[in-house]
Amino acid sequence: MTLRYGIYPGGRAGTVSSGPTDPNAAGALIERLAGSGSFLVREYVHFLGRAPDPGVAASLGALEELSSLTFPDAWYQEGGRELDLVVSYIPPLADLPGWLAYLDAVIDRYGHLVSFLQVTLEPNFAIPLIDGSAPGVLDALTKGLPHARRRLRQKGLNHVAVGFSVAEPAEWLGGDDPFWAYLEALPADVFAGHVDYVGLGLYPDAFSPVAPAGQPGDLASLTREAVEHLRRRSLPRAHIPDDVPIHIAESGSPSGAPRGVAAQAESIATMIGVIEALEVSHNVTHYELFSLRDADSASDQPVATLGLVTTSYETKPAFETYRQAVHRSHCP
To answer: Which InterPro entries match (predicted)?
Structure first.
């Protein structure tokens, strides 16, 4: 196995945004990261209900998502790039028929470009503007994912892998046992048998302090425990076998005060080292960073400074850290 890498190219984290992405600047940076090998580009579209609130849509940058993504269509199929497209479900009211129709519309528009289609974003994580908080999200996942897979196969897009993602166990929200219990109660042929991969959102040091390196609760141990928890405990409950790969679908570490850019680079290097060590034993096949560009380099909010470059596209030390990891993966 060889771990494959990727990144979200924008500068938005929820409603915090650095403004529209400059495709030329972002594209040039992604080319530097990717080198001559394969590289995933992660994009997001959002189902906000049949009559989306314009204010909510604008705050998420979701007004024109079915018209175009960050780059022209052809760009996603050039230079070894592959599109990893997330379809997020956050309507104000449960709407399964509207959701399935939206999945069809997304596949009709972008299916020919996609290599990986993620159905829902972290449905185990019940915070505002994340899918786990949306009414009807469990139906959206368990009925939407098989629906999307069938639709892709009907269109002859058999190469597209279909999956979903989860957040690290949200113990501060009371854990996510009800989510996994729901999946556990479903026969494998209803849901698990349709899942091609499972993504993990991995931010162990982004939102709370961690112990110093080498001590219990340090960044390396938290990273390892998150992957082990998913593979050894959660996925078996959901009848998802070991041969279904894990993608580190999002991962990041902030550079804002009081941490700094050097600490960010060190954190990313540590997480990548752990994931590389678990690649074979835990069947981890992909690692994608969130994100290329800061949402707001002047802010101390953790979500605002997850980028490898600033809001003005100046590279931080973490850019070179990540570039080296990507290029190592391309060496025989």
So the answer is: GH
Residue 210 has pLDDT above 70, yes or no: yes
**What percentage of the chain carries pLDDT values higher than 70?**
98
Q: What is the CATH number of the domain that holds 260?
A: 3.20.20.80
- The answer to whether residue 256 sits within a structural domain is yes
Q: Would 182 be classed as within a structural domain?
A: no
CA nearest neighbour of 9 among 313, 303, 310, 293? 293
Residue span of the structural domain in which 120 resides: 4-174+193-231+243-329
* Residue 288, phi then psi, degrees to nearest 5: -125, 130
Pairing state between β 4-7 and 16-17: unpaired
Structure tokens at 90: 């956050």
AA identity, residue 1:
M
**Domain-located, residue 183:** no
Whether the pLDDT of residue 82 is over 70: the answer is yes
Number of domains in the chain: 1
Which residues have a Cβ under 8 Å from the Cβ of 224 and sit 6 or more positions away? 274, 278
Q: Is residue 173's pLDDT more than 80?
A: no
β-strands 12-13, 16-17 pairing: antiparallel
User: How does pLDDT run across 22-33, given as a tens digit for each residue?
Assistant: 999 999 999 999
Print burial letters for 137-164: b (CB count within 10 Å at least 16), e (below 16). bbebbbbbbbbbbebbeeeebeebbbbb
Please enumerate in sequence order all residues whose Cβ is within 8 A of that of 6, keeping only pairs 6 or more positions apart, or say none: 39, 40, 41, 42, 82, 84, 286, 287, 288, 289
CA proximity to 201, closest of 327, 64, 13: 13
pLDDT by residue (tens digit) across 234-288? 999 999 999 999 999 999 999 999 999 999 999 999 999 999 999 999 999 999 9
| Domain assignment present for 117 | yes
Query: Largest Cα–Cα distance in the chain?
Result: 52
Nearest to 163 by CA among 148, 181, 178, 182: 148
